[in-house]
Fold each of these.
Amino acid sequence: AEPDRAPSCRIGLMRECWIRALAANRRKIHRRWEALLRLERADTPIADPDNLVHMIDWTLDKVFAELRSHKACHNAALPPTIATLQAKCPCGLNPFFKHFMAGEQALLEALVLAQSEEPSPDPALRDAAVTELYVVTHALARCEVEAFCSLCQHRPRQKVRPAMAGMTEVT
């Protein structure tokens, strides 16, 4: 069987003025992100917004650095969406889902506002910038979600069956 292949993307670079506008509105993005986090009920203590807010600045640093590098997705495979990652999570308790979903919305709102301040931005450039923002946030979310899931203690346990006297074999 052929492995699943993610769709690829080829987009233009996000305009530098929009990246600067996002960075200039960092405090507003942070406040909005935190407000969105607090709308959701925490499933676990680690998913409590009081814990997750400490990750916002680190995440913004990563997103802005990736946008500035302009290497987000030139003929690259599109990373899975946050909803796709969530659907694949065996326990559904990964706190990064809420963190990245709230962040994605806060960043998207800020980008749309920055784009609306231009008299008549090219629709193709607007769309490409939104796509690039999604690609960057989804790629970062994938790394963090998968890292956390690899440590999860709520995964389905592997079956253990006796092999020989005094020894066990994991299947």
Amino acid sequence: GVGFVGLAGSVSVIEVESTTEAHLSESNVNAAQDVRVLANSGTALDAFAGVIAGGAAGLGASISVPSITNTTTARMTGAVSNGGRTTEVRASSSETITVTLGTAGLGLLGVAGSIGVASINCTTNALINAGSRNSQVNQNPAYASSIQDVTVTATDVAGMATNVGSVAGGA
């Protein structure tokens, strides 16, 4: 805003909420090679807000509030599976938020402020559990081999970067 009293404001609110699921439920699965249940999710947010206010009095404010709330799940429930090589249940997720804010208030009286509040609240699960029956993995000797393996993993990587600045100038 520009004028005798220059007022300017900028607000950025971004919310991302998602659910990613991979299930093998109440099934019989036999494979000469691999049995895999994989869930993967990724979210990247870039939030920008900024203003310049000038006049006899320049008053500026910028606010950014980005958030990510994700649930990522891979599971075998009440399943009977036999894999000749690898039986894998894996959930992986990644989240990144980058906040860039800039505010300037210029005039005889200059006031400027920038506020950034970012949040990442995610749940990542990998599991083998019972349903209407107990899950059984690699119990059939017809599929047994020296390289048979079972892995259950859940990983989550989150990161935030902020670039926030305010400048106020007056006489």
Amino acid sequence: TPLYSSAASDVYKRQGGHAMAAGLQLNAREVEQLRERLNAVAEAQLTEEDLRPRLMVDAQLPLSEISLELAEQLGQLGPFGEGNPEPLFCCGPVLIREMRRMGAERTHVAFRAAEAAQGPWWDCVGFGLGERGESLTEGERAALCFRVRVDVWNGTPRVRLFVADAKGGLR
């Protein structure tokens, strides 16, 4: 039963949707009452653990095992979506270099990562990880959670790692 069904079935007119959508119809004057009830139920039922973001990692993948061929093969597993999530990998500790924040509000990061100074070095981008970028220091080691994708630049395919999370300051 959706949370809003048990919390305020007398407040809204209709409900609908599916497992990933909470559709309901209510009068505008009832919005605050619905908000209060939902917050009360959430406070009573949810724990700090429930609210902690989680990443479900599919496998550990050393950067030395990444290749264009692997990225292309992973892409063939798509299309990705709710019933078929894109594989998420982790690795570390890895070296970080050329770290920079990007975007109009500097909310994203771009950097290069490798297991060893001699490489190979992989281009990485982390959308929404601007704050996290503070812990990614040039020359230090970090752990990464990432997706491997083929990115075409000027007609040339190349591998790019799309970072979902990162933790710097590792040894």
